[in-house]
Amino acid sequence: MNPSQVTVRPARNIRGTVEFPGDKSISHRYGMLAGIAEGPSRLENYSTGADCASTLNCMRALGVKWDRKSDGQNVIEVEGSGLSLSEPSGPLDCGNSGSTMRMLSGIVAGQGFTSEMIGDESLSRRPMQRIIQPLTSMGAQIDSHEGKPPLRITGASLKAIDYKMPVASAQVKSCLLFAGLFADGETRVEETLRTRDHGEVALRAFGVKLDRKSVGAGSEVRIRGGQHLRGVEVRIPGDISSAAFFLCAAALFPESQLTIPNLLMNPTRARLLDILMQMGLRISVTQLDEIHGELVGSLQVEGGALKGATISGADSAALIDEIPVLAAIAPYTQNGIEVRDAKELRVKESDRIAAVARNLRAMGAEVEELEDGLKIPGGQPLHGAEIDSLSDHRIAMAFAVAALRAEGETLIRGAESAAISYPAFFHVLEELTER
Ligand code: S3P
């Protein structure tokens, strides 16, 4: 358990070897699909984050049996229930996890009972219309609080739809593909910008057939209903969005050296590596393998220059979870960082555009806040400050990284929120930091 506030002191360097717990996006999907598969699954290196525990707890409430093996490998063994789950005796508590609520909606929409899905204060503010509308067209009945949680979903025999998503969202895409498993006919989901494809890759790993093709800058996926999933034995690659904090920390110091084995390198997630290399970080991939359709690699990282970057269009969708930490180190870059087309950041666990602007200003930076992004000039030294993370894990971790090159100490409030995706974050940061 992390304390509710953590003091971060300036560093001289980042050095060492770090392997990350399993990717959060993949862990959610494997946790859900293992639950509706036939037969046992073994998920090694399952995410240690509280969000992925919320997914497993919801699956248990839906009658799925699973166990956590206490051998230090974060192994989850799941006994699949098949496509028919059991009616929960109380609300499904999704905690802080938008992924749990949105993706699991697609599964409960195909069940013969009503489920209530609830979340914490932050999740209760997040938009759900993006799944309510298409799931309703498939035949589910959904009540919400003006398009926000709690959701009350009455499942039905679903019918397939042909759906072009108005927002670039991998959660919505996975939700509809999962619902498509329960639908009569072929469901087609189109995205105009490519988002992470772990739902598609995971479905295939569990034996589901689907067709995928590129359409312009996006893609289309077709899935036939009624297919059965079979359990899998998998090892989940390290979370690249958790690694992002350490890669950005390494980028702050020219003498940094990091070794990262078993990191997720899926091309829909690895754009951060290109951007950091363009900015001057030296990254080499020393090994690359494929496990159940996901690319996993080992990285050798060395500090270098820290030029600026512009992130817009398809890059903003591809880097959506990494923008807070890139923005937090922007003042230290030579030419600054400009972020556009990232309006989705306003409806994450917090309004991340406002949170970054406010906390960078607290550290003495000049920042321009835009409706869909930020303009942060480079060459600005920062000073230590009190950071309000708004209980948003990525804001807490992003500013712990910015604090490493600031003058004086920084107090991160709401530091316990790091546990949502990476409970060991502050401990590992301390271990890798040279002072
Ligand atoms: C996720 C997709 C992204 C991301 C979130 C996890 C996923 O959200 O921000 O942290 O696992 O599919 P959207 O799909 O809403 O953009």
Which structural category fits the helices and strands? alpha/beta
Number of helices: 13
* Strand segment tally: 26
Major β-sheet annotation? 5 strands, mixed
Q: Ligands in the structure?
A: shikimate-3-phosphate
**pLDDT average, as an integer?**
97
Helix proportion range: 25-40%
From the alpha-carbon coordinates, what is the Rg to the nearest angstrom?
21 Å
| Cα distance spanning the termini | 25 Å
Write up this protein.
The protein is of the alpha/beta class and 435 residues long. It contains 13 helices and 26 strands. The protein has helices spanning 24-35, 50-61, 98-108, 129-138, 170-180, 198-205, 240-251, 271-279, 314-318, 323-329, 352-362, 393-403, 425-432, and strands at residues 5-8, 13-17, 40-44, 65-69, 75-79, 92-93, 114-118, 141-145, 148-154, 158-159, 162-164, 183-184, 186-191, 210-215, 218-224, 233-235, 257-264, 282-291, 294-302, 309-311, 337-339, 368-370, 373-376, 386-388, 410-413, 433-434. The strands form seven sheets. It has a five-stranded mixed beta sheet with strand order 18-19-17-2-26. It has a four-stranded mixed beta sheet with strand order 4-5-3-16, with helices on one face. Strands 6-7-9-8 form a four-stranded mixed beta sheet. Strand 8 and strand 9 form a beta hairpin. Helix 2 (50-61) runs parallel beside helix 3 and helix 7 (240-251) packs parallel to helix 12 (393-403). It is globular. The chain starts with a strand and ends with a strand. The mean pLDDT is 97. The structure holds shikimate-3-phosphate.
